[in-house]
Amino acid sequence: MKHWHQAVISYLIPLEWVAITTAIAALLLIAIFDVSPLFPGLDSAVFAVQHYIVGAAFSLGVSLALTRSDQSRSLQNVMIDAVRGVIAFTLIVYLHFNFKLWAQLINPMLFDSIYQKIDELLWPLVLLAKLISIGFEPIKQAMPNAYHDVFVYLFFSSFILFSFHPRARKHCGEQITCIALILSLGGLSYAIAPAWGPFIYAPSPNDVTETIQTQMASFQEAFIQTNGASYTGQYFVAALAAMPSLHSAHTVALWIYARRHLPWLGYAYLPAVAFILTEAIASRWHYFIDLIAGIAIALLCDKISRKLHNSAPRYTKLQHNLSCIKTHQFP
Description:
With 331 residues, the chain is an all-alpha fold.
């Protein structure tokens, strides 16, 4: 009986580890900085579910169902694991947007002027990104909000293709854990050196993007000036946070997993990766250094996710531990 906690701890799946750690970080921020949990309105909740949770739930459910026969697992256990993963991922998404909203309440300093000077020093690279982005003009003409839409398509194509591919689907959980880590660690890092984005110095050349940026800046200004009192649920997903670029982090992470497990998909993703990274600069959402920070976060989260999944054989050790918990027999 004295080792019962070891069985319980080892029974947690990697996504639950990330969710629990993220929740502890959130509680510490609430206690230390006196911020309050914020909740989404209906539209914001639908946005978060559609863009994050639906894809993750589909990937977890399908991949676990298709691999259950290989591991002699019952449909009930598969469904329980899928539900556990979805609940953990949903909590992480919710806390991510809280971290983003809290960032400038925790640290009111803005580092836009510093990042803008770095862009000036790196002007050849910034110019190169803008020139490459011009080559994607037909996509931007066809899709006015292409920076967002291409990013979403990349997410869903990875979730779907990994779920059904015989070789890749066993890595679905690891890929989703990596995405969850980016949401968690990336969300927390927003408060380190906050910035709004280079659009505050010059408007985006895209009219749709400029309108969105103006609306978000208006909310952000009122939110900070009132110390969060002006918040309404419709703005749950509307906080500005340029540093780091998590669009870049997610994009690079998805490309890494595609290249590693489905090499043909990695090649197919290259145009989308090039578009998102260059359009982040061209549309004036991000400074160049934001992209570097985002890529670094992607590499770190990939490493952590692989370690979490490789250190705990999911379908042998956990089933044994569950049996121990039910029978109160512990080594």
